[in-house]
Amino acid sequence: MLAxxxxxxxxxxxxxxxxxxxxxxxCGFIAPAKAESLEAIKHxxxxxxxxxxxxxxxxxxxxxxxxxxxxxxxxxxxxxxxLGQRDxxxxxxxxxxxxxxPTAYLDRSPQAIHDDRTRLLITPGHWAYLRISEGCNHRCSxxxxxxxxGRFRSKPRELVLAEAAELVSAGAVELIIIAQDSTYYGxxxxxxxxxxxxxxxxxxxxxxxxxRLMYLYPAGIDDKxxxxxxxxxxxxxxxxxxxxxxxxxxxxxxxxPDTKDQLRRLxxxxxxxxxxxxxxxxxxxxxxxxxxxxxxxxLDFVKWAQFDxxxxxxxxxxxxTVAAQMTGQVPEKVKQQRLQELMLNQQKIAFAKNxxxxxxxxxxxxxxxxSNRLSRGRFYGQAPHIDSLxxxxxxxxxxxxxxxxxxxxxxxxxxxxKDYDLLVEQx
Length: 427
Ligand code: SF4
What we know:
This protein has helices at about 1-5, 30-50, 60-65, 70-75, 90-100, 145-150, 155-170, 195-200, 225-230, 250-255, 260-275, 290-305, 330-355, and strands at about 20-25, 55-60, 80, 105, 125-130, 135, 155, 175-180, 210-215, 235-240, 280-285, 310-315, 360-370, 375-380, 390-395, 410-420, 420-425. It is of the alpha/beta class. The strands form four sheets. A six-stranded parallel beta sheet has the order 5-8-9-10-11-12, with helices on one face. Bound molecules: iron/sulfur cluster.
């Protein structure tokens, strides 16, 4: 959207209050995301009422999910724009500026596969997300995403590679592969080993150093993919594998194909193929029917698996999902207790893992240098924005700052920890 807007000749402001038109790109898959989006919309409408801005346009998943009803939820929205209309955003802005009527630009079922070349990045430039598909063919009983984003459509390989080449030539050294389920890549096009083949091609890019794979559906991780990652020089040994739960009855009710034994074997297999692997996962607590015994089983598994990072969500009964209608809904207080207990256990694991790294040598990618010349970066086991990071200092005096610039790789030694973060010294 940013590239479309800029190419149409509009100036893009990073400060909403100085703009004529505010476009809010929303998330809306669970209640807290929806609440956050609505809050941003209300704030923009308030600015409009006080005369600071002229028009408020709402785009993305929330309009796709709520449709015209959004006009009733916040009075003062000028246009709502569904996912299929993304590439028309500049034309929509022009029309909105000249039109007094609230207007909806919606396709009920988004089928477009977007060409994402010529992007305007809001990430630092030395790393970028590379979306390889749209939509999802799974039907997890708690999830609204297939309804919002439609069926899985792989982006053609040549488009992905062309976009990657553009990003690398613009300075990206790390590409982060994203999709609703990255392992599904190519299956809709009847391509075997689609993700393994794609990342093997990406690896040939000379300027690229790290490829990071996010959102790997556990049942989609096969031997070929493991072998490809294990042997690769550039695919980092970091995998994000959302398991959601481990109790067989809950997994079945979630419409997930895995069993606890299969998840256990997968983790063992990955650790065997890549002893240095860092793993992130996502878990839902308080799914309908989750008893204290089921939760204890989940907790035991998390203690056994020793994930490097873990995101935990409370179950939200989202309208339109199968799980929202299930019996055995868990009280909010119990969900909150379980979330806290799980995260406290994970904190112990993460802190112990950090302590174990003291004295080890890590290659770090420098992400930022602030006004005090304090540098922050990441080793391969840390994804930007969601994981912990490395705080970098030069050897010797604590006041001596690291001289590396964002986007550079440096050799470091871990000298300490600060909560979830690592303190590293350039060597
Ligand atoms: S795989 Fe992910 S996006 Fe797809 S239905 Fe399940 S939770 Fe939703």
